Amino acid sequence: MGGLLSERSGVTNIALEGFMLMGAFAAVAGTWFSGNPFVGLVVAMLTGGIGAAIFAFWAVSLRADQIVAGTAIVLLGLGLTSFLTEQIWGQAGGSPTVQRLPSIGAGLNILIPVAYLLVPLTHWFLFKTKAGLRVMACGEHPAAAQSVGIDVARYRYAMVITSGVLAAVGGAYLSIGDLSQFSTNMTAGRGFIALAAVIFGNWIPWATLGAALLFGFAQAMRFQ
Predict the structure, then answer these.
(1) Please, what is the Cα angle at 135 between 76 and 149, to 5 degrees?
(2) Is residue 49 classed as helix, strand or coil in its secondary structure?
(3) Dihedral angle at the C-alpha atoms of 60, 75, 196, 93, nearest 10 degrees?
(4) Is a pLDDT exceeding 80 seen at residue 107?
(5) Which pairs from 207-213 meet CB under 8 Å and 24+ separation?
(6) pLDDT tens digits for 162-173?
(7) Could you tell me the pTM of the whole model?
(8) Helix-then-strand count for the chain, H and E
């Protein structure tokens, strides 16, 4: 949903993989120092938001090539998390185990229903609110949106930062939801899969959910 919002505003967010990786690391680091996984989740969201703000500055304010800027964020996330893992815990490749986020039963983490809830919320925001319609106008006809007084840059900043926060939550699920530690490059391309799901779903929330479930099913089949 984060990638979809960014794309709808007119910014191709290749950096999702980097935001997920930063979020996965920050969630473990926040949990390690605070002893509370919910604090770790908040730290992950803040980290994703900061990373996305940097990407938005490059892509929106400086009008850098979005693909190049996004790739730079991915490489930065991979290198920085590997470096900090060794600096903080004195070991390469991964962190010690930390406390996980609680489950809601049947082995399902608390973030799973949150993920599903984001789909109707995103649909409602985009198609039922004035702000959502303005976001889509910024993506489809930015010059026309600008001509009627819509601040295109502000809406793009908001959507890119939101995408960074949501991607970081996805990364936090991997490290303190599904597992209880961070390992180098643990996202393993899931950010790019998310971007593919957005395109496969034709930039529509419910269709994107279907695409994500399809890719997830294929991955689960491989593990089995």
Answers:
(1) 115
(2) helix
(3) -140
(4) no
(5) 208/1, 208/4, 208/119, 209/116, 209/119
(6) 999 999 999 999
(7) 0.92
(8) 10, 0
